[in-house]
Design a protein that fits this description.
Order of helices and strands: EHHHHE
Strand content: under 5%
Number of strands: 2
Helix content: 55-70%
Radius of gyration: 18 Å
Strand order of the largest sheet: 1-2
Distance between the termini: 7 Å
Largest sheet: 2 strands, antiparallel
Length: 133
Amino acid sequence: MSTMSTTAGTARISPRLHAGLAISAFLGLGSIPFVFAPTPSGDDGPPAGVLALSVLLGLVSVVCAAVAWRSGNRLAIRINAAALLINALTSLPAFFIDVESWIKLTSAVSVVLTVTALVLTLRREHTPFTVTD
């Protein structure tokens, strides 16, 4: 009978993972203030519901990034990735409507940072498992 020694549910905390989690926390914190500056009526911008969703996803991302930073918890990393992805998807309509160029630039930077954070956090390091007989 053989026994496999693994650490289930935790990822090895590498500098690459820390960088991705730092970017995730930065993006999460960056999405929080927008709920306090809603779009004035008559102007183009996201609806209040999208802003509220962005804030909620930003808070989830910050909390999950903090938990994953300390423990390497894979579930926190995956929830963080889902929150980042959904938050990035809510900014994509800015590329298809007529808004100021700085809004499009900000959306593009946030999408690029999101992709970078996802690649850094979801990339698995090759770790051989130890099998003891």
